[in-house]
Amino acid sequence: xxxxxxxxxxxxxxxxxxxxxxxxxxxxxxxxxxxxxxxxxxxxxxxxxxxxxxxxxxxxxxxxxxxxxxxxxxxxxxxxxxxxxxxxxxxxxxxxxxxxxxxxxxxxxxxxxxxxxxxxxxxxxxxxxxxxxxxxxxxxxxxxxxxxxxxxxxxxxxxxxxxxxxxxxxxxxxxxxxxxxxxxxxxxxxxxxxxxxxxxxxxxxxxxxxxxxxxxxxxxxxxxxxxxxxxxxxxxxxxxxxxxxxxxxxxxxxxxxxxxxxxxxxxxxxxxxxxxxxxxxxxxxxxxxxxxxxxxxxxxxxxxxxxxxxxxxxxxxxxxxxxxxxxxxxxxxxxxxxxxxxxxxxxxxxxxxxxxxxxxxxxxxxxxxxxxxxxxxxxxxxxxxxxxxxxxxxxxxxxxxxxxxxxxxxxxxxxxxxxxxxxxxxxxxxxxxxxxxxxxxxxxxxxxxxxxxxxxxxxxxxxxxxxxxxxxxxxxxxxxxxxxxxxxxxxxxxxxxxxxxxxxxxxxxxxxxxxxxxxxxxxxxxxxxxxxxxxxxxxxxxxxxxxxxxxxxxxxxxxxxxxxxxxxxxxxxxxxxxxxx
Length: 581
Known about the structure:
This protein is α/β, with parallel strands linked by helices. The protein has 14 helices and 28 strands.
């Protein structure tokens, strides 16, 4: 697959620039597939080319041209079979002389040390930075007002076997979005903002970019392991899509939906919202541009289809496909406490995150080869963007209950690595207490230092053991955001119906939502007036590990390192494992 061809050409016209993808300095598992691409631009006159890897010619390169003076070569499903550094050299000679460009990559092999994990469950709190987690713990557990001692910890950060603080960045920016961060986690590579598991290329087509093989794809290809995806967002959103799909544009929703059923690795369990990407354009609410009906087609492929909590809990199958909302699933508060028709519509029987996770584990456990399960509490991020901190933090508490149940299952087996982490952070911060008796929008009700007191949401719980947002609490939490547009702060949350912090000014910009301003204090933002909501930050975020392989997750880590640590925990060596297709 990697051996040799010397590529000579006299048909083009010479190169002033040469680009090689993947980027120089990238690291791979030996046996991890990726697409090699070379792009030459600025050709002048007659030319010739030579491409070598570690001094030997490269076989199988397919040539194309994306326009005048341009030529490219692509080699799909390339892989290194041996560990160590590997250098690709491209030499281009034309009328202006010779241009040489090199890229050096490293391939690693995992030593089998200690007990290896058979299964891996990844919990993904989208946008769940350290501050988000801590604010949720204050709400969920509280402090003893007599001595200031914490009354408990979240399940997420107790009984920890490994713990890391994770940083991330994009291939093209210090700031990141969910697509490229999830891709880094899944492939070990830096990826462009808005891209899923691909390198850049010089064509406008978004589905032809050079691909990186994901961990799930590799585990399915080499070991026959099952794949599960669970999310409270719409199913083709960036984070769930990162498990097995590839595109330069995360908004290629229909193509992502198609790849779940037609890609290199097809998930066995998919449970999420977003039916609008899986139903034909003739169905109300669909956003497809064709008549593909994956609800019907999935059942022909052997999936059992479910669309409610009731049908989910009753399912008993080897392959499970569930869609529980036309769009994102509303927050935990909307599903469990508020239940306002404006938020839940006709979807009155949606599952909780733990329902979906437990059923996914039950289904995937039928695969004797093991499984990888990705579980996203995706609405944390969706509500931190519009500064609806209550919905975001209560979704952390739903995640926490889910982690507890899955970790108990894993502990009884002893063969499953459980990770809880995030993709990026938001600028949220709990900075004081709030005297709820004074009502909304009162700056004088914000207490700091000794006047902050102790929030007491934890005193009144719902049927699931999670604090009631509308209860007899006397002391609330003062929560703010650092990266914001102009907006109004009321200090007590959105209430039964979430509200956008801004509205259009009719001139291409945004102004504070006047409805919130009726009971809120106006804040001057620090983002461009064209920004309508808060944005991600470069702040680090947590990772907690439990079970076999947890020792590989310690201290400060870049997000790309998490991919290699997962592979190490699983003892994965795709170059030498037998089940290759």
